[in-house]
Amino acid sequence: MIVVDANIIASYILKEEGWERLDDVMLRGITLDYAMKEVANAIWKYCKVRGRIDEA
């Protein structure tokens, strides 16, 4: 069984270096319910640090 954690999902969504190699893992793996909350937080942090969102 392959477990896909929040780091893998966030890397895939944000297209971080090497994200292309994650296709197979994303298709065959399972994840935990709370991973989506962690991914949402990672995306928010990514955008905030890079100035792509503001306080509004």
Would you tell me the overall average pLDDT? 85
Largest sheet: none
- What's the total number of strands? 0
Helix content: 40-55%
Separation, N- and C-terminal Cα atoms: 42 Å
Measured by DSSP, the beta-strand proportion falls in under 5%
User: What class do helices, strands and sheet pairing give?
Assistant: mainly alpha
Taken in chain order, the helices and strands follow as HHH
Radius of gyration, in Å, reads 12 Å
**Unreliable sequence segments:** none
Helix tally? Answer: 3
Estimate the global geometry from the Cα principal axes.
Answer: flat
Describe this structure as you would to a colleague.
This protein has 56 residues and is mainly alpha-helical. The chain contains 3 helices and no strands. It has helices at residues 6-13, 23-28, 35-49. Helix 1 (6-13) packs across helix 3. The model has no long low-confidence stretch (mean pLDDT 85).
Give the key terms.
mainly alpha; 3 helices; 56 residues
